[in-house]
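A brief tutorial aside. Many learners find it easier to grasp structure tokens once they have seen a single protein encoded end to end. The record that follows does exactly this for 4Fe-4S binding protein. Read the sequence first, then the structure, and try to relate runs of similar tokens to stretches of the chain.
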Amino acid sequence: MIRKIVNIDPDKCNGCGLCVPSCAEGAIRIVNGKAEIAADNLCDGLGACLGDCPQDAITIIEREADEFDEEAVHQHLEQQKPAQAKPAPQHAHHHGGGCPGSRMQSFAPAASAPPAKGAAQPSQLAQWPVQLHLVPPQAPYFQDADLLITADCVPFAYADYHRDFLAGKAVVVGCPKLDDLNFYIEKLTQIFRQSSIKSITVLRMEVPCCGGIMHAARQALAASGKEIPLNDVIISLRGEVLER
């Protein structure tokens, strides 16, 4: 049949993934760094994903396509759930079970005074774990905390990450290009709801795909129903602060 359906221009798409969580039917996926329609019968052709594409790579066209199938959508979403739920068992690690490397810990960071000449810069990390997949939403180090949401490439690019950004903050780390943005939104929503976060700083790279982590933070904050100051800091590939 001829009907309206989403079309994604691969020449414009940069694989940022912002369109993926915008599709309630789960019809869009990222393959080899490009967004594509998983199957024609999963796309309703309404175009809810259009406004979330910074590259204007998504349009609505009319072409021959399988009819939209709600039952197929339901089955498709059910199949996605196990992958999205994988991190859940990690929550038990803060009780002492599971992998010791994921067990929740809080500790006092090193003094932030300048180190003696020739001495190593002291770490400002005050918690473990840091990966967004592993942190328990109800962790005590989130209470009354300033939260730093860090794209995981940032500490490699910005030399003084510990001193200028991490000191005095709770932190979660993730990659919006390689991980599931829907999971990020759900996990951050839980953290915002269950903790008395005082402020949120999103620290990300200048590359377009890294914008997904800011998108997840905004969506989660809206879903939490709370009003928390949200700051967006962008780091260049050469380690310069471009925007804060």
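Self-check: Residues 82-98 have pLDDT under 50 and may be disordered. If you spotted this yourself, you are ready for the next section.
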